[in-house]
Amino acid sequence: MRRKKSRKIMGILALCLVISITIGYALISTTLTLGGKSNVEKGEWNIHFTNIKEFEGSVSASKKASIDN
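The structure assignment produced for this chain is given below.
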């Protein structure tokens, strides 16, 4: 009977240890800050649509759209 109680207590203590280590790691990792700079330059897109017909107030394509490089 005494061994069962001590095993339960040891199990509970081990679980508490794992939980506290996990919480501690999470707290330390959220305070991590990275210093540095990043520049994003203006991008340009060269998009052309072909096979498009304009009707009164709407647009329709005569073929499926494709991307040409």
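Interim note for the steering committee: The longest helix spans residues 2-30. DSSP finds one helix and two strands in the chain.
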